[in-house]
Every structure is written in structure tokens, then in C-alpha cells.
Amino acid sequence: MSARGVLFVHSCPPAVRPHVEWAVAGVLGVPVKLDWHDQPLSPGCLRAQTGWRGPGGTAGKLAAALRSWPLLRVEITEEPSEGCDGERYSMTPDLGVFRATMSANGDVLVQEDRLRAVLADSSDLPSTRHSIDRLLGTAWDDELEIFRRSGDGTPVRWLSAAV
Fold first, then answer.
1. How far, CA to CA in Å, does 68 sit from each of 22, 71, 93, 119, 125?
2. Cα distance between residue 17 and residue 52, in whole Å
3. Is residue 147 part of a domain?
4. How confident is the model at residue 161 (pLDDT cuts 50, 70, 90)?
5. 32-42 b/e (C-beta count within 10 Å ≥ 16 → b)
6. Is position 74 within any domain?
């Protein structure tokens, strides 16, 4: 296993819970049973989090497997590993999917060509700020921050991909 990360399911309707577990199991190749808790910020929904270990790129595969369930609020992280940058995927019902390259300390990394494009396309300071906020995933962070805090203190169980 060359990579590891964490899957945060911030809110999930109960009817979708088994589909989330099946999707994660399909990516990791092992049976998955997440520890679900009530999500007080979204009455009637559940939340879960788990660590995972697998080959590099597993975070992207998990995101692809979960994006077809539009009612989920999810974050998936993958720590940097040999030859691979870290990644973070954020998903919300209203905003869809956001992907960012992550540094070892969790900062979003933005490639210089994307910054150059923002500077070339922006006509004033407000549009520049808006474009940079999009590159950083600010809207996703704003929506998910309260959900992140609601899971503080929740124990994390690790799942490992089948070899």
C-alpha cells in the first residue's frame, strides 16, 4: 500500500448508506462497514469517517465512485506518497465536486499556469479574487467547515485495499 488518506462522509441520507459502503468496497476490493452516527446539522442524515490505505490514486477512484450520489457531502484526502502529490476531493449537493493538489501540511497547491490564466482573464480585483477563490475551493470549504467540526472527536477506523 503506497498511499493513505481519510474518507469523511459529512452527510448521507440513510437510504444511500449501503450504496456508499458498496462503492467504497468496490474501490478497495474488501468488504466495508462504516461506523455511522447521526448528523445533527442535517436532521435525518448520517455521517461517517474512516482512514484508508491503498495504491496511489485511490482518493480519485473513491471520488469517482461516490459522485453519482448527489445528496452526499463528502471529503476524501490522500496524503502525498512517493511519486504522488497529495489530493483532496470535496463534494456537496449544490456545488458538485472540487479537486485540489495538497501539500504535506494540507495547503491547496495551485499550478502556475492556472494562476497565469487567472491574471490574464481577470479585468479587475473582484474578478481576480473570485477566480482565485474558485482555484482554492473556497465555496466548498465554506459549506463543509461546519460539517467538519461536527465530526471532531469521532474515532477513525482504517480500511486497507485488497492486495
1. 13, 9, 11, 34, 36
2. 18
3. yes
4. low
5. bebebeebeeb
6. yes
